[in-house]
Automatic annotation (TrEMBL):
Database matches in Pfam families: DnaJ (PF00226), TerB (PF05099)
Species whose genome carries this gene: Aeromonas enteropelogenes (Aeromonas trota)
Designated name of the protein: Co-chaperone protein DjlA
Gene name as annotated: djlA
PROSITE patterns xrefs: DNAJ_2 (PS50076)
Xref: InterPro entries: DjlA, DjlA_DnaK_co-chaperone, DjlA_N, DnaJ_domain, J_dom_sf, TerB-like
Amino acid sequence: MRIWGKVLGAFFGFLLGHLIGALIGLWIGHRFDRGMGLQSAFRRGPTQEQQAVFFHATFAVMGHIAKSSGQVTEQEIRVASNLMDRMRLAGEQRARAQESFRQGKEAGFPLRETLAEFRRASQGQRDILRFFLEVQLQAAFADGRVEDGERAILHTIADELGFSRIELARILAMAEAQMNFFNRAHGQYQGGGAGGQQYRQEAPSADRLKDAYQLLGVNESDSDQDIKRAYRKEMSKHHPDKLAAKGLPPEMMEMAKEKAQEIQQAWEWIREARGIR
């Protein structure tokens, strides 16, 4: 229980206005203590319940997107399975993910309610909400393009999570670039030991360099300063430790690390191509 705000408030209030001043100072000190308590509670970090909501919503909404075209395709199932592999899900955890995916495919799946619950659990933190949206875009791009039914669901997701149509279009373009970036560069991966996977140091092709610009959300005509600023902004949004502190489930840390590695590599390629120091 916090009391120092009340004590100091009453003391200085008494010095300034005797009894009435002490009462006013006591009230102000109480508000201060209460505000500090709320901030401390927020800094305690995400609960297991919040992370469980994130986990369920991720696979349930992914299943709903997969079913939007009427029939779940082999590619969509593969995307979900690959996501589970990247999260290293096995046993009970994998069974829970598969059950959530199945629920999302059912008729009458409460999409808006599920998204609203997730938004409440994440406390409306934009970086977490955006990471969730980016994961769902992987399901939408499973067959290489976004169908009308999938696009309608993405609009609903964006609306419920507080993203405008303009923001969604920008994130869509960056997600498509990320998919191309990963597919084209996947052959360049080599073992990185304890540090994970690393890219071989090879000069990027024109297509890869184009994807790198799109991955950072910039144009080739942008200035070096603007590109460097965009890189730092994207790294800040996708820093694994920051996302974990804001509620990212531990199982998704590997995905966050991969995303950060791709952003870093995109910047390195652009930096080298432009001679940025």
